[in-house]
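Appendix C. Worked example: YhaN AAA domain-containing protein
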Amino acid sequence: MTDNEMEGPSRKKTTVDTSPARGLYLSRMKIVSFGSFSNRVIGPFAPHLNVVHGKNEAGKTTLNAFFAGVLFGWEDARGAKNTYKPSNADRAGSLFFTDEATDEEIELTRIKNIDGLQGAADILDDIDKETFQTMFALTSDELRSLRNTTDVTAKLLTAGSGTGASPAQALAEIQSRIGEYTSRASGLDHSITQLTARQDELRAQIAQAGDEAERFKHQDKEFHELAPQREALIASLQKLNAEIEALSAGKASLERLEEELTRSIDKREALLEEEQALVAEHRLHERALDPSLASIAPADEHALRDRIDLLVEERSKCQHSVDLAKENYTDSKSNYEALLEAPDLQELEGRARRQRHVQIALSVALPVLFVIAGVPVFMHGREITSLSFTALGIILVVFALFLAGAALVMLFRPSKTEEALTQRKQDAQWVMLQDKKKLETCEGELSVQMTQTTTFLDRAGLGAAQGSLRRARALLDEAKDARAASSLFVQRQQALVAQLSAIEDRLADIQRQKNALYSRLGIALDTPLSEIATLIEQKSHQRSGLIETSENVNRRYGELKQELAHAKRQKRFDELKLEYQQVTTRLAESGEDLARLLLAKHMLEAAITAWESKSQPEVYRQASRLLSLMTAGAWVQVRMSEEGKLQVIDRVKTVREPIHLSLGTCQQLYLSLRIALLMTAENVGRAIPIMADDILVNFDEERRHGAVVALKELSARRQVILFTCHEEIVELMKSADLGLNLVEL
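Step 2, the predicted output written as structure tokens:
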């Protein structure tokens, strides 16, 4: 009998909902690690009748244990019980439930019991572990255990009620315990009758006591009153100690957080200053650099560098030509000047002048001499009329004239030496003039090239180079370095921004931790640490006062305990008094226990009456029909006797109790009650399948067929998963339900 089906004075009336509130069914199992299974998916399962077939040791029992473990927790290792825990891994896996209407899938996962069930755990709102094991888990072991039990009726009553114990058995146990409290047997220490009699005897003896008894009475009262006071003081001290410890730990944590907060703020300020310095430095670099160069594209820069290289080559050629022309001009000029100033040339010129002078002297002297000689001879020849002398005189005069003419010719004809010297001077001068002209031409070409270079650099944005190709290259290098510096600036700025973001996140986290600490300590936010220290000091003073009070109470408690112990040893009155108090206490406890038992009896009787009047008739009606179906009409009715015993009736009206039935018939009766209860209690475990593990192995062929039909009828209302290793059962299930879903292991 489930909680939803039991009705008592303290519970509301529950009506059975015959239509499923949720169309969920188990669609598959995913075993990560459990027993011998690892990374295995079992399924798919249909929403109605399913058969899981596998050979012995294929893992059918393991799957049943896995299903229950995911829903309600893994089994703890106790004794020799198999917990299916792998040796090298934790148990873990998932169950997948599918909504039959929408095909939406829900996953339930369990890894460790301490983490609980992960997923839509509300599936288990209408069922607990005990109800699942009692109603939804049908095993061959449970059916076989009916052979050995001494209380078969209790087992079947349990199945009929849906609880872990028979209600009639529980009621009988309660009535037995009530009888103990009203019994006069001397061996029952909690009997109210015996305690009352002993209390009367003690009261009569105590009535004879005098003033001393009264004094001990007051002391005993004080002694008992001190006990809760001591406990209250201890509790207060423990509470104060916990508060002081929490405040001290919280104060230390707040101090640590404040220090970290200060360091984080300082670091943030340093990062902000570093960022400002970086931005200022970057701005200085940007001001110092031509914007056109700073934004030049890499391809344009490459082309510009190639052009500059060509210009450098051209200038180098021009400069080389100028240098060569200048060197040639210098050499020719030096040669010319050296020629003019050469000593051998001057000596040649002097020698030539001397020869010229000798020639002139001879040219004058010889003709004069020949004239002087010829005229007298001519005159003498005329005088002597000598033709030879006359001819000789004429010849001498003519020869003188000839010499004079030759002297004139020689005088006006330059000498070869002079001509050679003049030619050398003219050649040297001509070479010098040609080299000078070549130098002027090369210098003009160099000037034109420099002008063109300056114009090109100005147009290319390199006017600051002032025509210097080396400076232009330097400017390009500076622009490249500036762009690299700009990229580095961006990276450093991004790094600073990331660090600032991390600092801000840490500051926010520190503030959250502080808020959480303040909230946990129960004090106002941002309370100064000095006030917390003051609060700790106040509580410490309060603790000192409590300690002093506790010591006084303990001292008094010890004194009273010692006096009462001494009185107990010395006087019978103390023993009677203490015994009377003990009997009174035990009598009160027995009265309370009896009241609880009477209340439990009343509630259980009311719950049994309510269940018998509402749910029980329908359960036994269904169970009777199903038992008749399973036994081919041999047994036709299941009922409860007035004495609370389960009975079955055959077709000839023979009434028997379950203990007198065969094992197979008893198992069929048990299965009928389970199926009837599951059909009736549709508001319990609506999404949970029925897990049946080889429950038909002890049935003969005819009754097995009836049980299969009963399971098919149950599958029309609930999902049923039957585990079996017998192929004949699989074939029988297929013949009974053409829509059967078969899963092979």
